Amino acid sequence: MDTDDLFALLYVLKQNRSEFDVKAITINANQWTDAGHAVNHLYDLLHMMGRDDIPVGVGGDGGISDSGDIGPDVGGYLPLIDQGMSSTAGGCRYRQAIPPGRSGRLDVDTNSGLRRAFLPQGPRRYRPLRQPTAQQVMADAVSAGPTTVFLFGAHTNLALLLMAHPRLKRNIERVYISGGAVRTADPAGNLFTAFATNPFAEFNIFGDPFAAYQVIHSGIPITMIPLDATNTIPVTEEFISEFRQRQLTYEAQYCFLSLDQVLMRLRGRSNGHGSTTSYYMWDSFAAGVALSSMRNGEIDGGNDFAELEYMNITVVTSNKPYGERDGSNPFFDGRASPRFGLKEGGVHSGHVQTGIRDSFCLIPGSNRGRCEDGYTREVSGPEGVRVRVATRAKPNTNKNSSLDREFFKSFLEVLNRPEQTGLFSIKTQFPYYREVLYKPVFGNGSKGKPVIFDMDMSPGDYVSLIYLLKAPREAIDLKGVFVNGNGWANIASIDIVYDILHMMGRDDIPVGLGNTTALGTPTLGCNNSYAIPHGSGGFIDSDTLYGLARSLPRSPRRYAPESTDHPESRQPLAFEVWQSVRKQLDPGEQITVLTNGPLTNLANISLSDRDASSVIERVYVVGVLIKDGGDENGDVFTVPSTKHAEFNMFLDPLAAKTVLESDLKITLIPLTVQRKATFEDVLAALEDIPHTRESKFVNELLSLLQDLQRRRKLYHHLVTIIHISSFFSL
């Protein structure tokens, strides 16, 4: 669901349905987007296009046994090599090559803020335990009859389907793959964050090399549109100029605005020089090549947009020497027999890249690594598979056109067709909707303690936020909110915080964007957040507020990336909000900080502002496990070896150490206290108070959490982390 995926999908949806009919869409959940944000984005996009009939599959909570037996509904949150049986929690071996914050998943999840600003809101949304899984949707579509598959991301979902249901191969006529790099100029790949360890791979294949190997070696006919071809169709200034003049449909407008945001960031990096933009028509071009081949005939027909030829291809999944077990390869290491029946000493038995800083892959004195995981290598002999490969984009047949590629002409023509056009945007769906900021007028009355709330956007945090907003201003004056990006929700969930504040009429409160990784760790990685499940009871639920985020009013405020044209609209950082709040303090006034998550933001502030402790009256920390001689255990349920850890401390131990060893005055609210408040107690308390919109929302959220906790083991870890007395003022 990256920007180029949107272009490709809209280009395909605009085709004549009697010729090409999209039957299902599944979301790859282990690369450039996060499942909860992606599925709701896709639902809204399909609603705009009048295609609420298309089933969408994402995730699933099944697992793969040690012997390689694939359970039902494996979610594809992890690459096949790291998928276990018991949980969707896991590391980011390959995904760490993708930045989790700005210019990475944050911008993709929000589409640079455009998703909520432009798209209508459809009737479909993610719902816990009711969302169709990727495997269900894909199996249903392929089982219905002859099917063509477009793969525009990592290959995990399709590989799982083929391995679990090999009989379905006969229904797949051909697979079109956007990705790979075969004969491209040195370096071959596009892993811009990982050239020092792997200069050969392309992102879509690198996302799950073993899955790509399974697909390409499945025996199904394959057409690949690799970097070899997409590198020959860069977005030019002439194309942008033409596109700017041709936005006759909602889908064309959305694509242009999305492209403009991407190019704005790229221009900022390159200072605006050059006639091309360093952005390419990756997936949309692949879609055009695929549709042209299907229309003209794959075997004997030509292609309108690309030159193609046959090559013998394989996918590198491990590095030589083969057969040496060095702890990097879970398919072989620590096993009496290899997983999936793989061959000892075979091509899958070598060193598997463990991350973008893998020392095995580094070459001393060179900025080019030696690992080839995910490389689509051209080979001879039995290891190669005959694949039809696009090698170059065709020039425009109209020599007088400013558009230098034939596909550019088709792309703009198709998007602007009146047929199969989008129905509305958010503004035309709700013509009386206005983006109004609500800011209270408090007058000259007395103000309470200045408070900053630091949250990681788990469901209990939103209940805490509403409670703080309901407290009398004479007692609590909420000055700012920090959001933490290395806790229980991905950082793009900051938009839910804006919606809560909007519902409460507090659009005046600034929200600061925190770090996406733990203190003292690389910005690319997942560190201790590997312990949080990606599926049910984890990120997909937190990022959608268990399906309830869509019931909140849509705030005019939303995440916005850095912009050279509108720097004032940029999303502020947590430290910037801290500085702003500090400047507003009256002489002698001090701030109270409440933390409901990892202590990363507070630790960064204390290290960056050495005088911070002088203006912090007290810090209240929700977290820690204090052993008092009893048998109380921690709550990091996905890491059995960490028996005594509590999640907020576990997710950033160095930040916790920094804060707890500082001279700040700290009050701890440990697990033993949190566990005294049960769902039953809190829900009973809510029944005895006057009902408001916010109390109804909290009641709905907690009732849902209680129901999920009772029904499914996946949700047994849910606890209310707010003391019961917090609810009496709602």
TrEMBL record:
InterPro entries (UniProt xref): Inosine/uridine_hydrolase_dom
Gene Ontology molecular-function annotations: hydrolase activity, hydrolyzing N-glycosyl compounds
Signal sequence bounds: none
The Inosine/uridine-preferring nucleoside hydrolase domain, residue ranges: 3-319, 451-713
Protein's UniProt name: Inosine/uridine-preferring nucleoside hydrolase domain-containing protein
